[in-house]
Design brief:
Shape of chain B: globular
Strand content of chain A: under 5%
Number of strands of chain A: 0
Strand order of the largest sheet of chain B: 1-2
Structural class of chain A: mainly alpha
Order of helices and strands of chain B: HHHEEHHHHHHHHHHHHHHHHH
Radius of gyration of chain A: 29 Å
Largest sheet of chain B: 2 strands, antiparallel
Order of helices and strands of chain A: HHHH
Largest sheet of chain A: none
Number of helices of chain A: 4
Shape of chain A: flat
Structural class of chain B: mainly alpha
Distance between the termini of chain A: 63 Å
Oligomer: heterodimer
Number of helices of chain B: 20
Strand content of chain B: under 5%
Radius of gyration of chain B: 22 Å
Number of strands of chain B: 2
């Protein structure tokens, strides 16, 4: 037998949020109860394995997440950001004015077109 | 019958604000000024709540100043939408004023700070309540002048002075352009009263004898007036390409002021666009083709703002600048919702029309609460980190204070649109409205804006929450955290009560934008005073 739930989007979202929150809580409690209270360490443990190369060939032992973040941003949007940041949002009033005056000019042009084509 | 509370709030608040510098010459105890400003702000909140209650019970109401009936004198008129925005403004401003008691605890210029802060509130409430297009110009100036001075409040910082000058220069241009628009309107229609203008544009009752007939080419004059007004309103709400001032001005202002500017002041421009293009030049007006075209322009600008704000968020290294770009993105989303009223997109009585406007106002509320929360939280973060605003130097500050961490995550989830917070439901309404209107590509762009802004919010959370702290941070007091907790609870409530809130907002939108609602705006704001 199949039971069908007829929920509106609001109730469904709230219901799913509650289920997600409850599941997260259960998973967290399981994690806390199963995790080790003490850790074992050795000298071998603290040395990274880097394919047989000595440790001094790399700058840091781990790659910070923010490097990955910047890698993606720079890799995917360099041209976009050169324009957005260095040309458009450069802090120079004269350059801002070009966009703002163009906008008011565009609005005036639209008004004239509407007036003469109505 | 008219209610005194509608007219008394703005002038009395203005008086209470400008008596502060005089009191500052006599009283030297800074605690007095904290208490004075908080009580004054609470008074504004109570009166705004009372006015909202009047509208909910009895519908739109107007107040003619000095016994001069509209259109001869200035009048304030409240309806469902503006009384709600005024209540939102007064509520958030009350919390910002409480927070200010912590932020400026050792500042000698407290009387001047509170004068300007209350002046800003007066300007905002005046813009929202007014039923007169010229009084809107005056109140825009009151709000703007307070805002310029507050941006440059830290006058020993060159960056703050530069930001205030840039903001002031372009702000003066914007208000002057709006003034020129008013010249065109007055020269053509012979009136500046919003209710009277609504009638003369819609012709509910033909020409009336009090405000005169039409003059000259009203179609051409209206086209120019609407174009110029839109330019000024998009400047005040920081919509692309009139947004350049905001990322400079908002971060340089004192943090409570940044919260007010980003959370509330930008709403005034959005509200003015609504009042002009949904009440005065409404879908049933004689020149509805003009507003249809203008609303198409606002849709394009809203999309551009949403995308540019989101993209620029990602590459910011300054926590307050990141939040400032987020404001541009979110106001863009609000404008996308507000643009659905163009008959080129949806019909006035359609489901898409009501959903789009409901989503726009819902998102306006969610953004105001969420952005104020994040800006105020950033003030605590910057204080704990020793004054730095650089994300890379905040090194897991929120881990040192769990309450701060919780409120920060709440604010981010609210703005990002994650259930069960209010931001999800408002973005959902905006998304659905364009699907209903048969423009799914707009819905897709709304999703892209949210997805891109996620990168910026993740960067913020990563810097203040996910890095393990390796340095000592200053401890903070309980007052700012209490304010932040209240705003966090508000974020949760806007989500959990979304069926109720959206039901109410839907009713408000239908009441103000239907033909009967617009007729009622004119009747209550004009006709009742002349025995109608």
């Amino acid at each position: 037998m199949v039971t069908q739930l007829n929920l509106d989007p609001w109730t469904a979202t709230l219901f799913l949020s509650g289920v997600l929150a409850f599941s997260s809580l259960v998973m967290y409690l399981i994690y806390v109860s199963l995790s080790r209270k003490t850790t074992h360490s050795s000298s071998e443990y603290s040395e990274p394995y880097i394919g047989g190369e000595p440790a001094n060939i790399i700058r840091s032992i781990d790659v910070p997440a923010r490097n990955l973040f910047w890698g993606i941003v720079r890799g995917t949007g360099r041209k976009l950001y050169v324009f957005l940041r260095d040309q458009m949002h450069n802090g120079v009033l004269n350059d801002w004015s070009v966009y703002m005056v163009t906008y008011v000019g565009l609005l005036a042009l639209i008004s004239i077109i509407i007036y003469f084509t109505r | 019958m008219y209610y005194l509370s509608i007219g008394v709030l703005v002038p009395s608040l203005l008086g209470l604000a400008f008596v502060l510098p005089l009191l500052g010459m006599i009283i030297k105890n800074i605690r007095f000024f904290h208490a004075y400003a908080s009580i004054t702000s609470l008074y504004a909140l109570i009166v705004a709540a009372y006015n909202f209650n009047i509208v909910v019970r009895e519908g739109p109401k107007a107040y003619p100043f000095g016994g001069w009936w509209p259109p001869i004198g200035i009048s304030y008129e409240i309806d469902e939408i503006n009384s709600l925005i005024a209540l939102l403004t007064a509520s958030v401003m009350f919390l910002i004023t409480l927070y200010s008691a912590w932020y400026i605890r050792s500042l000698k210029d407290a009387p001047y700070y509170y004068t300007l802060l209350l002046g800003l509130e007066v300007g905002m409430l005046g813009c929202i309540y007014t039923g007169d297009a010229f009084n809107l110009f005056v109140m825009l100036e009151v709000m703007s002048i307070s805002a310029y001075a507050l941006v440059g409040f830290h006058r020993n910082k060159p960056e703050a002075i530069e930001a205030a000058i840039k903001y002031g220069l372009f702000g003066a241009v914007a208000t002057t352009i709006y003034f020129i628009a008013l010249v065109f309107i007055y020269a053509s229609f012979g009136t500046l009263n919003m209710a009277d203008l609504t009638n003369k544009v819609t012709l509910f009752w033909g020409h009336n004898l009090v405000s005169g007939l039409y003059y000259g080419q009203i179609y051409a004059a209206t086209a120019v007036a609407l174009a110029l007004s839109l330019w000024a309103f998009t400047f005040k709400s920081a919509i692309f390409p009139n947004h350049f001032w905001l990322p400079d001005a908002h971060p340089e202002a004192p943090t409570p002021v940044s919260a007010a500017l980003s959370g509330l002041v930008v709403n005034v421009g959005v509200y003015a666009i609504f009042r002009f293009f949904y009440t005065i030049f409404n879908p049933f007006s004689l020149m509805s083709d003009l507003r249809d075209m203008i609303l198409l322009v606002t849709l394009i600008l809203g999309l551009a703002s949403g995308l540019i704000g989101a993209f620029m968020m990602v590459v910011q290294d300054d926590i307050k600048r990141l939040l400032a770009y987020s404001t541009i993105s979110h106001i863009g989303l609000v404008l996308i919702g507000l643009s659905i009223g163009s008959s080129l997109i949806s019909r006035p009585d359609s489901q898409a029309f009501v959903d789009g406007l409901t989503g726009a106002f819902y998102h306006l509320i969610n953004h105001s609460i969420g952005k104020s929360l994040l800006f105020l939280a950033s003030g605590v973060i910057i204080y704990m980190a020793g004054g730095t605003r650089k994300l890379d130097e905040l090194g897991g500050v929120a881990r040192k204070n769990p309450v701060l961490g919780i409120v920060l995550i709440t604010g981010v989830l609210q703005l990002l649109g994650i259930p069960p917070f209010g931001g999800f439901f408002s973005k959902y309404l905006l998304y659905v409205s364009y699907l209903e209107a048969g423009a799914p590509y707009i819905s897709v762009i709304i999703n892209i804006i949210s997805a891109v802004s996620l990168l910026g919010y993740v960067r913020l959370l990563y810097s203040v929450f996910f890095i393990i702290p390796k340095r000592e941070f200053v401890r903070t007091s309980r007052l700012p955290l209490a304010v932040l907790l209240v705003l966090s609870v508000a974020c949760l409530i806007t989500g959990l009560l979304s069926p109720i809130i959206s039901y109410w907002l839907r009713g408000f939108v239908e009441a103000t934008t239907s033909k009967d609602g617009i007729l009622n705006y004119w009747v209550q704001g004009y006709l009742v005073f002349w025995g109608g």
